[in-house]
Amino acid sequence: MKQRPTILDVAKQAGVSKSTVSLVLQGNPAVKEETRKAVRQAMADIGYVYNRSAATLRSATSGLIGLVINDLRNPFFTEFAASFQMALSEAGFATVLANADEDPALQRRMISSLVEHGVAGFIISPSYGEEAETLALLAGSGTPTLQVFRTLEAEGASLPVLAPDYLRGGRLAAEHLIAQGCRRIAFLGGLNDRPVTRERMKGYLAVLEEQGRTPLVLTGQSTRAFGKAMAARLHEQHPDVDGVICFNDLVALGVLSACPGLGIRPGTDLRVVGFDDIEDSQDSVPPLSTISCNIPDFATETARQIVGWIREGTLPPARALSPVRLIVRASSGGA
Amino acid sequence: MKQRPTILDVAKQAGVSKSTVSLVLQGNPAVKEETRKAVRQAMADIGYVYNRSAATLRSATSGLIGLVINDLRNPFFTEFAASFQMALSEAGFATVLANADEDPALQRRMISSLVEHGVAGFIISPSYGEEAETLALLAGSGTPTLQVFRTLEAEGASLPVLAPDYLRGGRLAAEHLIAQGCRRIAFLGGLNDRPVTRERMKGYLAVLEEQGRTPLVLTGQSTRAFGKAMAARLHEQHPDVDGVICFNDLVALGVLSACPGLGIRPGTDLRVVGFDDIEDSQDSVPPLSTISCNIPDFATETARQIVGWIREGTLPPARALSPVRLIVRASSGGA
DNA sequence: CTGAAAGCGCTTACAG
DNA sequence: CTGAAAGCGCTTACAG
């Protein structure tokens, strides 16, 4: 089995120097159209495959971007990963994936490994913990790094963040339930000390305060199981609650699934709004009203920012918020 | 900003030659423990980072494995991707991700790109279409490639496959429903011409035939929406059906969610079994009986096979089946 | 617009 | 066990 052809073989075949082949490869406009064609033909003829490792070594920039996700099993992040990967491949970059599984030590090891692979940039939806070490590692590598969804901060150190406007989402949900005539609105799910939970809750709390109403907050896991449990608890302990805003769609779907068994009519007795607009939310019974973070657009914007940073050196804003919108379906009695 | 240290800097710092540093890097046992320690210390002191691009170029083997998935938005594949990535990182490989989105042309472009990046191996859950070209591309690159879940075949050409024993899963589901006392059992969902659908259905058909019963097959999309629609249709047109085996959990969850509205008691009037054991299936109302493909183990085995192929040259079996098992929950009236 | 030369940071024989 | 030399396949100035 013969070894792979190199640009030297291409040059020989096309009757030019290997510099010329390299220029064609890089799309340099200085090369005559005719020459360019001849070179491309030669490549096709001998089955040339570009060797990016060599290019990376010489030019010190790879076409790889590291995507480090705290929990890839969560459909919300998966959808982001899928969209991001596709947007990036259109820009000529490949995505190297790492699932940190909410484990900061694992996260650090994976970031180290990706640095060795010479990724040109990082997109990180961080796992909490060991923030100082992780930020130092990233800063030390000098690799452009954009945080998404969540933020890691340590004294002085921080990295640009792109996140959906969670606070506004919380507001939209609360305002919607009030407009629907709800009298008592609860907030369910989300771990209490997490920034994301606090943001979503803050929007809800602000609206209730403006209206002079008393909030009811039951934080906890962000799972269907927690939603089911809380539906029962509300039914028993807070029967006056007629509207709930859930930390995410999973919690909301849990609430909905528990309703029939409790004799609650969702969308009438209890109006439910989720957060994230995951795919399942369209197909629940009843379909779930939710706050959409517009993941495909968010992923495209993320790709645009990191590519701009790498290629043009455009530093993203320190903290950018992406738009969210309310999607009204039957679970909140809408339409 | 000073540029990154190289093994030459490490050698200087440690007072050895750069060859020695390289040997330490590769864990070569020929180096004295004392020297090894000194080298490691020197690396830590000057903040050395291994440059894999250089190593890849010289040794012609990268630590990258390409994972090409037909539909990364499907939670079943996501869970596989997450598990696989983690198993692989333990073996010292990074995973480069590509979502082909069921588009064979996109799939080809992504494989090409991954070949340029010099991936040491491919794991592909293929999108159907352009099989001959895709197989030729893979064969031409000479990269070890293992297919998972699905199979691409063209005359003569084929690649090793690792897949769950779908046929056995279909059998297990059918036998279970019969043991539960079902009289008339239908098979729902899955595109009719797909090999995976055919396998799952074949197990079901075999059992029904052995029992001298008449099958009822309603193939179609593999979505919750299709499941909901079919529940209504069965209710109207085939009220005698008291057991259904669904192509996957999504279809089954759709069926379950439609039951309350139709006045059907799932697990009693209608026993439902799904396929895949996705996470949501534990939390549905009622919890869903299903055939588990044991994705974490499957991912570990996939990693083991591709790493063995790359490192030891152990060619995987042409077609290996991984075990499946029935998980009985309330939707089939079990327990 | 094209060619000859050097070098990116490693690994790989090959001597000692 | 360690050192000097060559080379992986590109890109990058630098002449012409």
Give a nutshell description of this structure:
The first copy, chain A, has 335 residues and is α/β, with parallel strands linked by helices. Helices cover 46% and strands 16% of the residues of chain A.
Strand content of chain A: 15-25%
CATH topology grouping of the largest domain in chain A: Rossmann fold
Overall average pLDDT of chain A: 93
Principal-axes shape call of chain A: elongated
How many separate domains make up the residues of chain A? 3
Number of E strands of chain A: 12
- The CATH class of the largest domain in chain A, by name, is Alpha Beta
Rg calc of chain A? 25 Å
- The secondary structure category of chain A is alpha/beta
Give the ordered list of helices and strands of chain A.
Answer: HHHHEHEHEHEEHEHEHEHEEHEE
What is the spatial order of strands in the main beta sheet of chain A? 2-1-3-4-5-11
Question: Could you characterize the architecture of this molecule?
Answer:
Two copies of one chain form a homodimer. With 335 residues, chain A is α/β, with parallel strands linked by helices. Chain A folds into three domains: 7-50, 434 Repressor (Amino-terminal Domain), CATH 1.10.260.40; 62-164 and 295-322, Rossmann fold; 166-293 and 326-332, Rossmann fold (3-Layer(aba) Sandwich), CATH 3.40.50. The first copy, chain A, has helices spanning 7-14, 18-25, 33-46, 52-59, 75-90, 104-116, 131-141, 166-179, 195-210, 224-237, 249-262, 295-312, and strands spanning 64-69, 94-99, 121-125, 145-148, 161-164, 185-188, 216-218, 243-246, 271-276, 289-292, 319-322, 325-327. Chain A has a six-stranded parallel beta sheet with strand order 2-1-3-4-5-11, sandwiched between helices. In chain A, strand 6, helix 9 and strand 7 form a beta-alpha-beta unit. In chain A, helix 1 (7-14) crosses helix 3 and helix 10 (224-237) crosses helix 11. Chain A starts with 6 loop residues before the first helix and ends in an 8-residue tail after the last strand. The model of chain A has no long low-confidence stretch (mean pLDDT 93). Chains A and B meet through helix 4, helix 5, strand 2, helix 6 and helix 10 of A and helix 4, helix 5, strand 2, helix 6 and helix 10 of B. Strand 2 (94-99) of chain A pairs antiparallel with strand 2 of chain B, so a sheet runs across the interface. Chain A binds a DNA duplex (16 and 16 nucleotides) through residues 4, 6-8, 16-20, 22-23, 25-26, 30-32, 35, 50-60.
